[in-house]
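Issue 218. Parser rejects a valid record. Input:
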Amino acid sequence: MPTVLQFRRGTTSQNNAFTGAIGEITYDTTTDVLRVHDGSTAGGFSMVSAGSTATLTNKTLTSPNITTSIVPTSADGATIGSASKEFSDLFLADGSTIQFGNDQDITLTHVADTGLILKHTATGDNSTVALTLQTGETDIQADDVIGKLDFQAPDEAQGTDAVLVAAGIEAVSEGDFSTSNNATKLSFKTAASAAAAETMSLSSAGVLTTSSNIVSGGNVVIADAGNIGSASDTDAISIGSDGDVTLTQDLELQHDGAILSFGANDDITVTHVADTGLTMKNISTTGNSGVGAVLTLSTGDTDVAANNVLGSIQFQAPDEATGTDAILVAGAVECVSEGDFSASNNATKISFRCGNSETATEKAKIVGSTGKFHATPDSILLIKDSSGSTLKTVNGHAAI
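Output the parser choked on:
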């Protein structure tokens, strides 16, 4: 018969109580595992079998092949690596996921050749996924960057500017943080031929600041009673809730031939005539009882008394270099009340004013109450023909 070599054997509890000689091998009949003894340690040291389940402590595994899963003994029961013994690279296959939470409610999924998807897997209302960038700083000062996203092409073959950060979004503190302050702006950075720098920012007050133009492909809507302005004049243009626009500064139409249009169908226009003046026009071509463009000068006076000016057209050369009399109003046509207005009276005169060495004064008038044309008492009115010959002389006390 063949010789059979048998080792000491027994159950797990029996092996645990046995201290074998140095190099002695025993067999655990409970776990089907060999134990090696050192002559002093009770139970010796268990080996690992291919078919057994065992706990390995302080063992080094070199390129192990895992065919199923590595799982802890319980949820949240183990870590991968430690604070002093960190793993290096982690390689995951196409479409792999990293799942977070006891019910795997947040997932990070690889999209082959594209990127990553962060998702909240819950299907209930308001199941919003959140990615929070936090700083560990304990004393936030003005201009500290709390978090940022950078965009870069570091492998660009051209190098130099091409590999610098090309764009970015940063959250930047606007002042020292305190129990009552966490004012922060969002800084949007872009680059042209340098590392990305701020070209637009949104402040904690909701003020959007850009370093260049804003181009909109749709509507720009201003809040009711909102303003449009510059850094030094923030309310230069005010828009009321009814759409009325108020300017606090000048309105400049800086191109020849500029047109201002009025009315729902732009029926009245005021057009700039280069180096000449303005033309007001009624553009209707269908006829309107023979009336062209009408310019009405109105007063807001609610109690018109004698000699009140209802409207005036004045003529002046304010930039005349010689100054003094030369820059005074040189001529005018005014509509002046002849008495107190009432339900049965609106008598007025048209006053023609001319200057000599003075602000223009009345030299002639058409009196509405009489319908007559008068020269002023101290003036003489000469009526001449086209050749300059005097046809009639009217002194200040006469009328035509």
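Fixed in the parser; the record now loads. The mean pLDDT is 90.
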